[in-house]
Specification:
The chain has 117 residues and is mainly alpha-helical. Helix content is 77%, strand content 0%.
Length: 117
Amino acid sequence: MPAREMRMEMFLRALLKRDFSRAKAHAEKLQTMAGNDEWGKGYSRAVTGFISAIKDNDPDALIVQLINGGNREKAGKLREHFQKTILEHEFRDDYEKGYYTAWVEFLGAYLNQKTLA
């Protein structure tokens, strides 16, 4: 498993435990790995959004709905949609590709969990 995917798994586990200080530390490492170009900025924006939505327990946020609902089927469909429908379009800019890559990696980590907290 690539380093960024492993870090995303650790990030997700920290979020599921509501350990926001540890999640923030993992997020910072993910952001460093992503870099400062447009792709990295999009990726970082998504990661920051994951923390904010879960910390605020925003019921309208897709990520909160997935985690609170524990809906693996919906997560799998979203991952496939982001991966095949959005990331494969050439007209998407690097920022969008980075943003949705973070979603694909997050959803992959989510689906890899044996049990969901």
